[in-house]
Amino acid sequence: MIGNLPYVAVVIFVGLGIYTLMFKKNLIKIAIGVVLIENGVNLFLITLGYRKGAIAPIYTYAPSGQAMVLPTPQALTLTSIVIGIATTALILSVAMMIYKHYGTLDTDEVRRLKG
Amino acid sequence: MNLSNHIPILIIAIPLLAAFLVPLIGRINKKATGILTTLALSVSLILTIVLAVKILTVGPQVYVFGATSPSLTLPSGLKFPIRIMLQIDAMGIFMGLITAVVSFVGAVYSLIFMKQHSGLDKYYSLLLLLTVGVFGMEFTGDVFNFFVFLEIASIASVALISFRGIDLGEPAEAGFKYMVVSSISALVVLFAVGIFYGQYDLLNFAALASVIKYSQLDKIALGLLIPVLAMKAGAVPMHMWTPDAYSEAPAPITMMLVAASQASLYALFRVVFSLYNISLNVLTVGWIIIIFGLLSMFIGVTMAIIQKDIKRLMAYHAISQTGYMFLGVGVGLAVLANPVALNQYGITAMEGGIFHIMNHAMYKGLLFLTAGALFFRTGTKNLDKMGGLAHSMKYTTIFFIIGAAAIAGLPPFNGFASKILIYESVYRFNPLLSIIAMVVSILTLASFVKVFHSAFLGPKLPQFKEVKEVPRSMVFAMAVLSCIIIFFGLFPDLIVKNLVHPAVMSLIEQFKYTGTVLGGM
To answer: For a surface tag, which of A112, B136, B400, B518 has the fewest beta carbons within 10 Å of its beta carbon?
Structure first.
């Protein structure tokens, strides 16, 4: 049971992210919502590779016979984190541009494109 | 070293290298950036054609990174592929050809179209990165790599959509919407990748396809993948980003965005056909895809009729045309488990749907370019403010007529060729679907008659007295697409038999795709 706690955290992260995206009207908060979902997914990936009592997967330094955690999910997560930084930076810079032209971050007022 | 073995990676690597060279060159000579981009993309186009010939004659190609030989998919002693690889079959190269043509034409068109903007080195760099991302999505044989390329394409597209956001608010607004939509869809794809990895310890498409059991978790992964990939392809009811992004991006970028959306559509078909194939409940999933198609076709075209902004109107038509692809391929999927129906009309329906992908990229690209040409000379996208432009922009008028006739499905243009395949075969599946498709086609024609009337016909307006034809390189870009449209319209047999049929067969016959990696296992 206690081993499933990370998955509960994943659900909370993603759920909060979706809540933020659906109900918050501030562009910065929407960006935070995206980041929350991203953290949830990263946590999910890293949990998949976890083994109880295992050590870091550095092959040359590991004592023989000791179980290691799976390295692939860690590589995936690392890549995903790097990509996440790029997307977050881009979302925030676009939000900055919107603030410059509209003078607000409220999605109800940033609505020149519709129909 | 035999260079011809390395063509698959060169198609991706050359634009990628050029993407980082362009800003450096831009420090020395601003004009050289566009030329370098065009050069890199033309090399990529030639290599794609060479690879296409090879794939269609020899069979699917695999390119393995980090192995002693690019074709060594299974290292000795292992029963499953562990290396990252590109895996290109007839369907992948079909999409690759579209991307190669569209990106090359887009670069040529940009040479003059974007001339008055500042920061051109960044523009070209992003254009190349977008091409890299789209090529990667189509060529990769690895689910995680698909996510990476999806993000590369999304990030580049967002920056390009909001490229004019320095001076205007709307492009930034469209860019924000697109960024949120594409980050969410990429993260959901990553979540599905995690589900696959957790169950099977595999990331390779082909290896996954050979072990997939359609368990409860696989169903969840499918349920996550279908909506987000359909969202990236711009299907109704997840289409809210499409008209904004398409109408606010510069015209050549809009054309590239169409190709990028279609790469997501390709991924959707790849997941459904190559990954799950017959293990799915094909009738249910087939109908889900058909319903996406019907909604997109109908809502897309009805929304298009009321638009006044020419690019927004065309964007809604892009949604509507995507519906045809969903319809054709959805019907093929629905009868996948029934060999008799599949042979009678399922394969034809899929040929129609897949052929429509290429046709749509060509004529929609052409239409967006003519809209760009109008904007370039008149400075407006509002149809109410245009008029009488046929007097001064003769070539653009002809190109617009070709594009409009093709999208409305009039013979002898390419839209007719694929639409007739869809009508005929879908009628045998369910007559109502075929009738709706025809009605949508008529509405499309009506809408484009309106555009033609308000933009091109009528007396010469005093405020457009100075308007003249667009420069030669823009005319050349539009002429290339027009020639392809007319060629496809006149000889559809040739294309369907040599390009589309192999693509459809490699989707239907799962082993054709998986067998290339797993060998004799």
So the answer is: A112
Q: Is residue B248 within 8 angstroms of chain A, CB to CB?
A: yes
- Mapped onto helix, strand or coil, the DSSP state of residue B201 is coil
- DSSP letters of B448-468? HHHHHHHHHSSSPPGGGTT--
Residue A107 is assigned to a structural domain of this protein: no
Give how many domains chain A has, as a whole number: 1
Predicted ipTM > 0.90: yes
Facing B176 at nearest CB: one of A37, A44, A91: A91
- Candidates B150, B177, B180, B306, partner chain A, best to mutate (most A CBs within 10 A): B180
In a domain, A108, yes or no: no
pLDDT tens track for B400-424: 999 999 999 998 899 999 999 999 9
Q: Where are the domains of chain B?
A: 281-490
Residue A64 lies in a domain: yes
What was the pLDDT predicted at B520?
46
The CA distance from B235 to B289, in Å, is 10
Classify A10 as helix, strand or coil.
Answer: helix
Task: Please indicate, yes or no, if residue A112 is contained in any of the structural domains.
Answer: no
Domain range for A56:
2-102
Per the CB < 8 Å rule, is A86 touching B194? no
Using alpha carbons, select from B179, B448, B203 the residue that is nearest to residue B305: B448
